[in-house]
């Protein structure tokens, strides 16, 4: 069965604890502290595997955890870092926070690898706490705890063009006619249960087209395949609306188009803003009577939707339709539709009751020091090496009033801000 949704629990690795020990060797009776630091916990990383097409790997396993960092040990030995866990997903997968439904990552386009949960930092061993007045510290820092998060994985296929229409209007036959795809074709009175993708070759320039699972009334409310159909339309740039112009099963093609567009609007009003073209299929089965194409044109071409009579079986009219679709694609922006990050897992680490301080350095000119448990905890979990992680940390400083306090302390553009071994140049 095609799997395009999965709900799993992911867990980062705990940081290893710092170690308390003292150097004890022959002829060195008071060698001082030599407890090593704990290793960093493993990260949870999502990575695109272009060989995957479903989320089937996540149907039968619920929890995925990175390894914990090892504790430090004597003789200043650092604990080993915990092993990362890398979760492979198909291109086009959204990673969402299960509780809020907000997007954490869109695994498509240039975003082929992203750290979702950062492992906890390792604790400092007692060798780091020795001072001129405290030469034998008997304490070390524990490692930062692991973090657990329930996420929803949701696959939205990546295609330039989506085929929409009621079941049994000929979408699979049309796809087989115009692409290299080989969908199962028969006179089913139910719908295809998984998206079929193929590439249309137009004089050396192609586009990707998807036969997306067919609609029934009530789909926007989850009836039938419901959302499993509708979510796959969101990335497409143009829609080909197939209808049975011959009414071989007694359906009214005009009513069918309105019913499907109503389902699109109920699910996401923005879907109706996507360009559409109507393919009046099964024209080889039309026998006398009123011309269904003229009726469709009279109804929809005043709305800016062109109508093309075609036969997916014989291929009649298909070439003209495809050239029209190619022109529509060429006139639209080329960038791929992606979903912006709405939820930053680092937010769940913030404890606003923890204190912090903002002070001007007494030792270095044009330097300010920001410290405190709130800052230390956030730095322990934020992936500053990624652009999104760094942007989130800047937002954290602003939302917590830290930037305002730096301004009040007299910071100027180009000054340095130090935070637990990290240095940043300040810009407004």
Kindly describe this structure.
The protein has 428 residues and is of the alpha/beta class. The protein is built from eight helices and 18 strands. It has helices at 171-178, 227-230, 253-267, 292-300, 318-331, 373-381, 387-399, 402-408; strands at 5-11, 44-48, 63-65, 85-89, 93-97, 103-107, 113-117, 148-155, 161-164, 196-202, 205-211, 238-244, 276-281, 306-309, 357-360, 367-371, 416-419, 422-425. Strand 5 and strand 6 (103-107) form a beta hairpin.
Structural class: alpha/beta
Q: Average pLDDT, to the nearest integer?
A: 82
Uncertain stretches of 5 or more adjacent residues: 183-193, 218-226
Number of strands: 18
Determine Rg (CA atoms, Å). 30 Å
Oligomeric category: single chain
What is the succession of H and E elements? EEEEEEEEEHEEHEHEHEHEEHHHEE
> What does the overall shape look like?
elongated
Main beta sheet, described?
6 strands, mixed
Continuous helix count = 8
Strand ordering within the main sheet: 10-11-9-12-13-14
Gap between N and C termini, in Å? Answer: 53 Å
The percentage of residues in β strands lies in 15-25%
Determine the fraction of residues in helical runs and give it as a percent range: 10-25%
């Amino acid at each position: 069965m095609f799997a395009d949704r999965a709900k799993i629990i992911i867990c980062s690795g705990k940081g290893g604890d710092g170690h308390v020990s003292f150097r004890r060797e022959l002829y060195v009776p008071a060698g001082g502290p030599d407890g090593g630091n704990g290793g960093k916990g493993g990260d949870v990383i999502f990575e695109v595997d272009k060989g995957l097409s479903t989320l089937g790997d996540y149907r039968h396993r619920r929890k995925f955890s990175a390894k914990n960092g090892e504790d430090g040990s004597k003789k200043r030995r650092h604990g080993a870092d915990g092993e990362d866990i890398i979760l492979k997903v198909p291109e086009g997968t959204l990673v969402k926070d299960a509780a809020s439904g907000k997007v954490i990552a869109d695994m498509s386009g240039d975003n082929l690898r992203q750290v979702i949960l950062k492992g906890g930092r390792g604790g400092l061993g007692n060798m780091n706490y020795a001072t001129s007045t405290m030469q034998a510290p008997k304490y070390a820092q524990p490692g930062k705890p692991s973090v657990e998060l329930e996420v929803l994985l949701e696959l939205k296929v990546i295609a330039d063009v989506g085929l929409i229409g009621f079941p049994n209007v000929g979408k699979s036959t049309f796809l087989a006619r115009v692409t290299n795809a080989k969908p199962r074709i028969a006179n089913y009175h139910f719908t295809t249960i998984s998206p079929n993708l193929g590439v249309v070759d137009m004089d050396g320039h192609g586009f990707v087209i998807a036969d997306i699972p067919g609609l029934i009334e009530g789909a926007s409310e989850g009836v039938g395949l419901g959302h499993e159909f509708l979510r796959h339309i969101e990335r497409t740039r143009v829609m080909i609306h197939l209808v049975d112009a011959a009414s071989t099963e007694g359906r009214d093609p005009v009513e069918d188009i309105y019913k499907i567009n109503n389902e699109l609007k109920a699910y996401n009003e923005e879907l109706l803003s996507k360009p559409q073209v109507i393919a009046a299929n099964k024209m080889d089965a039309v026998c006398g009577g009123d011309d269904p194409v003229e009726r469709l044109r009279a109804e929809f071409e005043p709305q800016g939707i062109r109508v093309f009579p075609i036969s997916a079986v014989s291929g009649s009219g298909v070439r003209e339709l495809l050239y029209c679709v190619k022109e529509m694609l060429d006139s639209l922006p080329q960038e791929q539709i992606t979903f912006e990050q709405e939820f930053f897992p680092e937010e769940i680490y913030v404890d606003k009751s923890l204190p912090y301080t903002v002070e001007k350095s007494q030792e270095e000119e044009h330097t300010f020091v920001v410290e405190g448990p709130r800052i230390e905890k956030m730095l322990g979990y934020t992936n500053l090496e990624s652009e999104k992680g760094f942007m989130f940390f800047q937002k954290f400083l602003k939302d917590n009033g830290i930037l305002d306090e730096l301004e009040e302390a007299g910071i100027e553009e180009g000054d340095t801000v130090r935070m637990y071994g990290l240095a940043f140049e300040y810009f407004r």
